[in-house]
C-alpha cells in the first residue's frame, strides 16, 4: 500500500511539473505575441505585459480570451510569409541550377562540335540573363 501511495504521489508531482512548464511556455508565448503585434501601441503593450507578468494566471487567461483570434491570425500570417520566402528561395536555387545545366549542355555540344563558339556564347548569355 505504501508503494502504491508513493507511486501516485510521484505521478501527481510529475503531472504538476508538466503543467507548470506548459504554463511558463504559454506566458512566454503571450509576451512574445504582445511585442510582435503591430496594432498595439507602446503603452497598451506595456499594460498587457505588466498584467501578464504581475498576474500570470489571470493575465494569460484574459489575454487568450480577448486576443486569442488575433494571436492565431498573426501566427498564420507569419507562417504564410515564411512559406513565401522559402518558395522564392527555392525558385532562385532552381533557376541557378537550370542555368548551370543549360550552360553545361551547351559546353558539351560545343566540345562535340555540334554548335559554334558564337552559338555557345549566345546560349550562355541567355542562361545567365
Give structural notes.
This protein is mostly helical. The chain has one domain (2-128). 91% of the residues lie in helices and 0% in strands. It contains 4 helices and no strands. It has helices at 2-36, 42-54, 56-112, 117-128. Helix 1 packs antiparallel against helix 2 and helix 1 (2-36) crosses helix 3.
How is this structure best summarized?
The protein is built from four helices and no strands. By secondary structure, the protein is mainly alpha-helical.
Uncertain runs are none
The amount of helix comes to over 70%
Query: Major β-sheet, in short?
Result: none
Radius of gyration: 29 Å
Tell me the distance between the termini.
Answer: 80 Å
Question: What brief labels describe this structure?
Answer:
91% helix; 129 residues; mainly alpha; 4 helices; elongated
Question: Secondary-structure map with pairings?
Answer:
Layout: H1 2-36, H2 42-54, H3 56-112, H4 117-128
Helix pairs in contact: 1-2, 1-3, 2-3, 3-4
